[in-house]
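Sample intake — DNA polymerase IV
Collected from: Corticimicrobacter populi
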Amino acid sequence: MALRKVIHVDMDAFYASVEQRDDASLRGRPVVVAWEGPRSVVCAASYEARRFGLHSAMSALRAAALCPQAVFVPPDFGRYRAVSQQVRAIFGRYTDLVEPLSLDEAYLDVTLNKRGLASATEVAEMIRREIREETGLTASAGVAPNKFLAKIASDWNKPDGLFVIRPRDVDAFMLQLPVGKIPGVGKVTRQRLSELGIETAGDVRQHDRMELEKLFGRFGGKLLDRAHGLDFRPVESAQAVQQVSVEETFERDLNLDALQLPLRRMCDKLWAQAVRKGLFGRTVVLKLKTARFRVLTRSQSFTGTLDSGERLYLAIEQLLRRVEQPPRTLYRLAGVGMSSFQEPGAVTRQMSLFDQ
């Protein structure tokens, strides 16, 4: 199989950077993009704010406590989408194989590029230069033989950086890569790996596929592939996002009553993800996996899109009441999802949905 040349481009603190670009009084200050209200979560934080430990998906109340001098600005998705379209137009000058992940990041397959440039590195440098000149914003980029490695690389020299993982360097790079950098390795999985003495991708390679799949299910095989730097997924330019979701495997099995707090946390995280991607759905999904590995799902569709993380949680609460299992049933995993998205700019607010 011929090697691909993949670039992952990630705009730096995108929403906050747009606000700072458009309002000179915000430059150099800790800017937080978030709605007002006790249930609001941070959509984006400028790099000045990140020095105080602020980050997206954090509660706005927590952000204000960590950084009292932060300037809070409500999001303006119309402006963010307009800038995103500018950036995507720049991508289109180099390749038609563009897979957007959200308003501020995308994969590009530049194995063959329209400009006839000699290397993917040169393409990435040109794209970053044109983004800066035409939008006044900075972007970081990662160049690698596949999507998985390109995404890791784009985060390596943030902000306003470029990092290249050449095919001949993949093996050495992966040996020392912390296992927590591998997508899918969350807090619980990382803890289990640490207990097994697995701290790096190189450590993962010391275990065979059968052993890892016994410990982690199908993810064990994917984990081993990633530890070798393997990812055969193509860049899919026509792929439409069907659902955004968040899952959590618990450190210990929980009964139904104990799920409310983690589900609220997941709803906040999901809403922050939806805001970042600019995706607001009409259908809400609850997923549960019992201690015996039985998977249960409940869903409900509404006439309009949800308008806040709080209303998302209220919908999940309603679905939770529809789980008809014995009270003693324990659950090892829960997840929340949202789908049936409106077209950008056509989001309708469903304000009275849960007030009946």
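Post-analysis note: The radius of gyration is 21 Å.
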